[in-house]
Amino acid sequence: MLFDLIFLGVFTLGWLISAYIPWLALSIATRGRAGLVYLPLCLFSGVVAALAVPVLGFDGRGGLALSFAAAFTVPAALLAARRLSLPASSPRPRVEPEPREIPR
Questions:
Q1: Each residue of 11-45: b (16+ CB within 10 Å) or e?
Q2: Rounded distance between C-alpha atoms, residue 92 and residue 72, angstroms
Q3: pLDDT score of 46
């Protein structure tokens, strides 16, 4: 019983680390603008995706690798969908109107 809990704890920790990597990479690439609110969502979606793999029947070595791949790709897809849904935020230089002379 105790070994099972340790085993599941190590798996969950590995899945959390796998789900954290896409958020960390996006945070580094965007200089901290990945959105801290999306970190728990990425971790949760990674663990749920990883738990879905053995529930769907993929167990063994292939299922283990697939669960870690799912824990990585689902948060990465979530963050990619978020980035693609945002409007392009290119900083445009603001053009000031030229002052006009007031007619008398």
A1: beeebbebbbebbeebbeeeeeebbeebbebbbeb
A2: 35
A3: 96
Q: Are 50 and 70 in contact (CB under 8 A)?
A: yes
CA distance 45 to 43: 6
Give the pLDDT confidence of 12-64 residue by residue, as tens digits: 999 999 999 999 999 998 888 778 889 999 999 999 999 999 899 888 889 99
Label residue 66 by pLDDT band (50, 70, 90): very high
Model pTM greater than 0.70? yes
Among candidates 69, 64, 74, which has minimal Cα distance to 11? 64
